[in-house]
Amino acid sequence: MMINADQKELEKFSQLAHRWWDPGSDFKPLHDINPLRLEWIDRHCQLAGKSVLDVGCGGGLLSEAMCERGATVTGIDLSEKALSVARLHLLESGRQVDYRQVSAEELAAEQGSRYDVVTCMEMLEHVPDPASTVAACAALAKPGGHVFFSTINRNPKAYLFAVIGAEYVLQMLPKGTHDYARFIKPSELSRWLRNVGLDPDELRGMTYNPFTQHYALGHDTDVNYLLHSIKNV
């Protein structure tokens, strides 16, 4: 099976992996948005008691947060360094997350329709074939299961805010973090979902106020957005 991954992207994030749990590091935006996305996910599916797969888990910020809410969590990623950091942090937090170095496609071929909840956050814009990742996430969810995505819209405003603003002006992210050509319109993502048996349910935007330095969920999906879907029974 061809691995749906960009080696340069993996190396880029692997080089920063040791700073994953530092809230003042390059991963500060992820620390800042983690409570928002956690509450949004939990509101839709009530995580306690659920089996959850976190696709592209990185250092485990969301994985551990969902575990703390009472879910049984498996986190998968292709970065060995990020997973090493994630496993090391479990020794500090005392939480239990099963981390595996495997792609969503490989895992889907191994064990389909297993999870109550599948999350794929801030990852689709970093893989060569995002539709393939979407299909794998759908295959891994149980019928009636919840599948969550978050990514970046593709339009001039998104380029201005997510690339020029975040990487060059505000320097919130390292230069080269995002490739505008890989940004995904909500209509495109929704089409991929429907093609693999996922019903789009709620689309929410995530905005950042540079003056208050706070993120918020709302109706503005021009830049960052989240999409909740349910697998057809």
Automatic annotation (TrEMBL):
GO terms for biological process: methylation. One of its GO terms (molecular function) is 2-polyprenyl-6-hydroxyphenol methylase activity. Pathway: Cofactor biosynthesis; ubiquinone biosynthesis. The keyword S-adenosyl-L-methionine applies. InterPro entries: SAM-dependent_MTases_sf (IPR029063), UbiG_MeTrfase (IPR010233). NCBIfam families: UbiG (TIGR01983). This is Ubiquinone biosynthesis O-methyltransferase. O-methyltransferase that catalyzes the 2 O-methylation steps in the ubiquinone biosynthetic pathway. Its EC number is 2.1.1.222, 2.1.1.64. The gene is ubiG. It comes from Accumulibacter regalis. It catalyses: a 3-demethylubiquinol + S-adenosyl-L-methionine = a ubiquinol + S-adenosyl-L-homocysteine + H(+); a 3-(all-trans-polyprenyl)benzene-1,2-diol + S-adenosyl-L-methionine = a 2-methoxy-6-(all-trans-polyprenyl)phenol + S-adenosyl-L-homocysteine + H(+).
